[in-house]
Amino acid sequence: MVRLQPDPFLNELTNMFERTTEKGSVWVTLKHSSDKSKVQRNKMKTAGEKIEYRCLIRATDGKKTISTMVGAKDHQRFQSSYATILKARMTALKKRERKDKRKAADSDKKPDSKKRSSAAKKTSN
């Protein structure tokens, strides 16, 4: 796994998306991490030091894996760039077919009204 700085990571992520346009997938995972071992974190807690948590981001296309660490200061800038890349590369997704709310409401009401009218006829007879 190759650990990159955030900007080269985004460039390589764009290249991964381009390579897998015709066939393949890219998996991206985000994880809360301090980049320290558990022993080091426990020592820092007992000493009263503040532990700086970062976001570990990994991407793989099955053949190549890349990763980066993003701190709280750079998170907003990284997230906006990452979102732009995702929006540009999600062109192959199909839009979900949605039912018209009125049609769905009318189709739900029709069976209920038949039940009520037949029940009313039975009680009146």
Written account of the structure:
By secondary structure, the protein is of the alpha+beta class. It has four helices and four strands. It is extended. The chain starts with a strand and ends with a helix. The relative contact order is 0.15.
Order of helices and strands: EHEHEEHH
Mean pLDDT: 80
Care to count the β-strands? Answer: 4
Query: What portion of residues belong to β-strands?
Result: 15-25%
Rg over CA atoms, rounded to whole Å, is 27 Å
Structural class: alpha+beta
Output the keywords.
RNA-binding, alpha+beta, Signal recognition particle 14 kDa protein, 7S RNA binding, four-stranded mixed β-sheet, Signal_recog_particle_SRP9/14, 50% helix, 125 residues, Signal_recog_particle_SRP14, single chain
What's the structural blueprint in terms of helices and strands?
Elements: E1 2-3, H1 6-19, E2 27-33, H2 38-47, E3 54-60, E4 65-70, H3 75-89, H4 101-124
Parallel strand pairs: 1-4
Antiparallel strand pairs: 2-3, 3-4
In short, what is this structure?
The chain has helices at 6-19, 38-47, 75-89, 101-124; strands at 2-3, 27-33, 54-60, 65-70.
